[in-house]
Structures are given as structure tokens and as C-alpha cells.
Design goal:
Structural class: alpha+beta
Radius of gyration: 12 Å
Oligomer: single chain
Distance between the termini: 11 Å
Strand content: 25-35%
Number of helices: 3
Number of domains: 1
Helix content: 40-55%
Largest sheet: 3 strands, antiparallel
Number of strands: 5
Shape: globular
Strand order of the largest sheet: 2-3-4
Length: 93
């Protein structure tokens, strides 16, 4: 993933906020994920901006931790969600 990477919810995915958490479901595959507060905030930013750099920046303003830790957390979750078919990652050239 690069600074220009874009992320969007997979078209077959529905989600529901449950307090500070979120639940994702891919209607085609049946893959179901529960996101904690941090994961739900990342999901909110995926829906809101979809740009990896903006997602990381938003979380840096909100959460304690080094830039490297937050960047790694966001990228790791995006990779996992992509592998599970819950998001689509677009590598912009």
C-alpha cells in the first residue's frame, strides 16, 4: 500500500454500528466481522474519505500512539478486511 492507496467498502458488504463498535457482513460470502472501537473508527474513515493517508491522519488526531503505530494498525486492518473480501483496495498509480 502506498500513500495514494484508496479503500472502499466492498459492494456486497453491509454494516451496522453498535455503540462504539461495528459489525460487517459480506452478503455474498457470509464473512462476518466485528470491529472494536478503533476498528469501527477506521471503518468510518473508509466510508467517509477512502484515502489511506486521510484515514491515518484522522486516527492520529484522535488516538494516542506514534505515527508508526497508528499507520501500522490502519494498514494491518485494511489488509485483513481486503483478504476477507470486506473492502476493495485500489492502488493508484
Amino acid at each position: 500500500m502506498t500513500r495514494r492507496t484508496a479503500v472502499r467498502a466492498h459492494p456486497d458488504v453491509v454494516f451496522q454500528k453498535l455503540g462504539d463498535e461495528a459489525v460487517l457482513l459480506n452478503l455474498r460470502t457470509g464473512v462476518y466481522w466485528s470491529l472494536n472501537h478503533t476498528g469501527a473508527r477506521i471503518w468510518d474513515e473508509i466510508i467517509h474519505s477512502g484515502k489511506l493517508t486521510e484515514i491515518v491522519a484522522a486516527l492520529q488526531r484522535e488516538f494516542a500512539g506514534s505515527s508508526a503505530e497508528i499507520n501500522a494498525t490502519v494498514r494491518d486492518l485494511v489488509r485483513e478486511l481486503n483478504q476477507q473480501g470486506l473492502v476493495v483496495v485500489d492502488e493508484e498509480q
